[in-house]
Amino acid sequence: MKLQHIVAGFALVAFALAASAQQPIIIKFSHVVAVDTPKGKAADYFKKVAEEKTKGRVKVEVYPNSQLYKDKEEMEALQLGSVQMLAPSLAKFGPLGAKEFEAFDLPYLFDGYASLHRVTEGPIGQSLLKKLDSKGITGLAFWDNGFKQMSANKPLKQPADFRGLKLRIQSSKVLDAQMRALGATPQVMAFSEVYQALQTGVVDGTENPVSNFYTQKMHEVQKYLTLSDHGYLGYAVIVNKKFWDGLPPDVRGQLEAAMKDATRYANAIAATENLAALEAVRKSGKTQILALSPDEKKAWQKALIKVHKDLESRVGKDLLQAIQKETGFNPAK
Hints:
Oligomer: single chain
Radius of gyration: 22 Å
Keywords: Signal, Transport
CATH topology: D-Maltodextrin-Binding Protein, domain 2
Family: Belongs to the bacterial solute-binding protein 7 family.
CATH class: Alpha Beta
Organism: Denitratisoma oestradiolicum
Protein name: C4-dicarboxylate-binding periplasmic protein DctP
Number of helices: 13
Largest sheet: 9 strands, mixed
Shape: globular
Helix content: 40-55%
Structural class: alpha/beta
Distance between the termini: 90 Å
InterPro entries: DctP_fam, TRAP_DctP, TRAP_DctP_sf
Order of helices and strands: HEHEHEHHEEHEHEHEHHEHHH
Strand content: 15-25%
Number of domains: 1
């Protein structure tokens, strides 16, 4: 009788082990933007490719639009292991202690995607991602959204037009300095709260790539959108380091390959998604779209160039010079 019990016990353990071996590895991927943005589409694309490449051994659960966590909460949730993957905007890493990432917030540092990608896809980008290891985070890739435009309920054509306005920013010392250089008062606010703040007049305006501006319906509560291309908004795709290091090596390799595919996809669609969103804003008739003349753009650049010098010590002088060398940026222009 005892032998039967022992055999039955072994059978139960073997069954439990087999069942657990068949359970997929869950990756909760949380983000704060809409599904139909470049980041939203790229997250869904990663889910599809990751599940295909791992043949179902991994299941990716994507939670868009701050469903799980808001801006300020998601990084802590990742470090605690409550979610496994995020794609926060690069401004989010300053408050974490990785101030170097705020270099991407510097106004007019990149004149287009080609110069930007020489940084994000080269040695500088890789060295920045490695800096996250000490925070319990593994950096996997950079994803584009696009170049930012200014919006408000008054036309913004000259730096003087910003005087006295309250403008929403992400938590970034560089963005704070940028708005102050224009004469505006910066207001740090979670992305999910921006629409209501614009609607109720808590803030007067904000900056966004057009895809975010349109998908968050900001065109319903902002009368003017200035095509300034003054700054870049991108994301770093990150994962909880303990979780990532604990994956079976073959699964980790398959997920790395899936991330490379998703990154190519994300960066290929970013520019076209923003153009499509701009056309949608134009067709809505609710927001007047303003273009800057060459002289007006020079006035913006002149007003904002001081931010580079003022924030040089924060982002790191050597890093800033390395980026400027890579992009061909000349602060004396």
